[in-house]
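Pilot study result, target chain (413 residues):
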Amino acid sequence: MGYELLVGLRYLRARRRNRFISINSLVSMIGIAVGVWALIVVLSVMNGFQKEVRTRILGVASHVQISGEGNRLADWRSIAKIAAQNPHVVGTAPFVQAQGMLAAGPAVRGAIVRGILPGDEEKVADLGDVMRMGSLENLKPGGFGIVLGADLARALQVLPGDKLALIAPQGLVTPAGLVPRLKQFTVVGIFEAGIADADSALALVHLQDAQTLYQLGADVSGVRLKLDDLFAAPAVARELPRDLPPNTYASDWTRTHANFFRAVAIEKRMMFIILALIVLVAAINIISTLVVAVKDKQSDIAILRTLGAHPRSVMGIFIVQGMLMGVIGTLIGVVLGVLTALNIDVIVPAIESVLGFKFLDKGVYLIPDLPSDLVASDVISISLMALALSFAATLYPSWSASRLNPAEALRYE
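Predicted structure:
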């Protein structure tokens, strides 16, 4: 590829005879660079949003959850001990989870009531980091304290120190009929996890108080596990039942929130396809550039052929010309995309200050800042896709040049 590379590079510049070709080449490079740049930045931002939401979800949910038949688990301490023997498990905590109705004055709201041991809960969740008022340590056994999500507390119009009634769906059978089980609780804390399902519907009480209210005795609903690697959760959830007692089940966070993460994955895939069209348009522009170049260089091709150049060499010249456009455009796009993705936390606020408004208003959006998570595999796949499209765009014009008849090209020269 000695002279083919030199001739292809010279044709790429095309300064003397036809500046239109060099301008077209420049436009093709810019198109590929913009497409690669946009793909890297958009996919990095989507990865950032996915990571941020996943972190918030797992702040109140668990990596793996062990439960029993009928939502009851006896002898949870031995089950937690067995689960802790797995090398990936770094924390265990029992819980009771049931539905309830909260009433404070005229306000009534349904809620998911979760009974926890505050000390153990800190091992499997990050609820302590999202407390806005009070603390989980305020939940004392027999004290009947309750910690509410911020939206739930706002709907009930309560603050720490206020009283509310918790009504359990299981009733008491009396001579007068079925009477709902009701207990007065004191609000001892408010958390804000940034997840609508938790902030608007989750209420935390002490494990012993939940067992008393829902008449579970010493039983719990299940055991929550935290792992050293959250992506190992599916494998751990498959392995644990082999060592656990019968009628014991394990589920991981990818199942409990499968719809959300599946939707994000589909959206990311569709954004990749849509933005890849920019690169495809630039690749089509490479075809037009090479077709014009082949037409313009017919006499040069004919002379090379008469001097003994093989058709494959002629084809290689125009493949080199087209691939140089693709490689240069891809490299520029990768550099710009990586720099933008790594500094998006600086670039976006600067643009917002210049324009005078915020893109993601904190009062409207769950995540007010654009997060970014640059993944090397995304950069590699985008680069390979751009180079593959560039190479494919060179094939027809190059093949057409190799098929040129020297006699026909030189007839009117």
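One observation from the pilot: The mean pLDDT is 82. A full batch analysis is planned for the follow-on phase.
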